[in-house]
Design goal:
With 225 residues, the protein is an alpha+beta fold. It is 18% helix and 29% strand. It has a single domain (10-85, 95-197), classed as Alpha-Beta Plaits. It has helices at 54-68, 79-85, 159-177; strands at 10-20, 103-105, 109-110, 117-124, 131-139, 145-154, 192-207, 212-218. Strands 1, 2, 3, 6, 7 and 8 form a six-stranded antiparallel sheet that branches.
């Protein structure tokens, strides 16, 4: 079992792409509906471009790992999942662990401007075959590509621990590619292809005698997969 250590010793910045294989939908609130827009819109930036919130990506990858362990509640997640993805606070606003979260998920933005698509859905009445409750859903179309960045905070110089954590993250990536992102996945939405393309490792150095901080950087760091 790894000892708790909150001294930040470095960061690994993992970059990559998320390609949409089937229409992706991460819904926005109905308060965001504009005249002429779909009834059920997706999240967008202030410039009206769709994006993938870091919270959506983080939550989905965590949930897939937890499902593999049979955990239905975050407090029952395996220790390594809590260590990487964080642990919810209690009613006093304090976390259940003194270990800081090790993964940071940035919002993911499209490589080029995207025009969204609308898909109409309804409910079929089994006895008559008639359709009811028609609704218009907004989606990100297939072949759209987003860039992402995940930051892994290094609290241990143990290379075996780092390797184990990165492998767990990569396993979550593989699970996501075989599952779906966003909503309506059981109806064919949200199949994606997530790929790690580059990693940059920054090691922190602190000179106590001179009260000086510095980085050493490996811009072509090879992930220990």
């Amino acid at each position: 079992m790894e000892l708790i250590n909150n001294k930040l010793k470095g960061k690994i910045l993992i970059e990559g792409t998320i390609k949409v294989i089937s229409g992706l939908r991460i819904g926005a609130g109905k308060d965001d509906i504009e005249l002429g827009s779909p009834e059920l819109p997706i999240v967008k930036t202030i410039n009206k471009q769709p994006f993938i919130p870091g919270s959506s990506l983080k939550g989905k990858m965590r949930a897939l790992l937890a499902r593999c362990a049979g955990s239905l509640q975050p407090e029952n997640d395996p220790l390594i999942v809590k260590r990487l993805f964080g642990e919810a606070g209690n009613n006093d606003g304090e976390t259940g662990s003194q270990q800081l979260t090790q993964l940071i998920f940035r919002d993911s933005y499209p490589q080029k401007l995207i025009t969204t698509e609308s898909k109409y859905e309804n409910t079929i009445i089994r006895t008559s075959g008639a359709a009811k409750n028609p609704r218009q859903l907004e989606r990100i179309p297939m072949d759209s590509v987003f860039t992402f960045e995940i930051v892994y905070n290094i609290f241990s110089e143990d290379e075996n621990a780092i390797k184990k954590h990165i492998k767990v993250l990569d396993f979550a990536r593989q699970l996501l590619n075989d599952d779906y992102l966003g909503g309506c996945g059981s109806r064919g939405y949200g199949k994606v292809e997530m790929v790690f393309t580059k990693a940059n490792k920054k090691t922190i150095k602190f000179n106590e005698d001179e009260d000086d901080f510095s980085f050493t950087e490996d811009t072509n760091y090879e992930l220990p997969l």
